[in-house]
Amino acid sequence: SSLLLYNSVGAINETALSSLSLVGNLTQHIRLRADSDAEGDETGAGFAEVFPALVWVVRDFALQLVGDAGEPLTPAAYLERSLRPAPGLSAQAADKNRVRRALRAFFPARACATLQRPVEDEALLQRLDLVSDSLLRPGFLREAQELRERVFTS
């Protein structure tokens, strides 16, 4: 099966949501254009069926994954909470909700993986390509291995 790995830094925020929405909109436009050219159908019914599954990778993740009541959250639950409708009736809230709705429609199969910062030392971070695994944080190595397994078994 196909996967789209979307890579962002820090946290899932409005900027990252909007960027991914642009990817989805562009892909939808290309697909709908191809379908309408081939079949004369511009409705786009079922476009989500051709989209790959999404794995949102959040690098340098430092947030505590806890819910409103202090319960632990999985990365997948964190993503789903980020895609919930924003409260309010303002134009800004409507725009945010349009983006969230589109992402939920484009990517009905979705997951999230968080990767903590690989090292704490800034000097090592600047030359990460030369750093041996023994100097990387154990949590980062574990999370990276889990992500590799997810990608290669999909």
Automatic annotation (TrEMBL):
InterPro entries, per the entry: G_GB1_RHD3_dom (IPR030386), Guanylate-bd_N (IPR015894), P-loop_NTPase (IPR027417)
GO molecular function ontology, one term from the record: GTPase activity
Signal peptide span: none
Domain GB1/RHD3-type G per the UniProt entry, residue ranges: 1-154
Keywords, comma-separated and alphabetical: GTP-binding, Nucleotide-binding
Domain of life: Eukaryota
One Pfam family from the record: GBP
Family membership noted in the UniProt record: Belongs to the TRAFAC class dynamin-like GTPase superfamily. GB1/RHD3 GTPase family.
Identification of the protein by name: GB1/RHD3-type G domain-containing protein
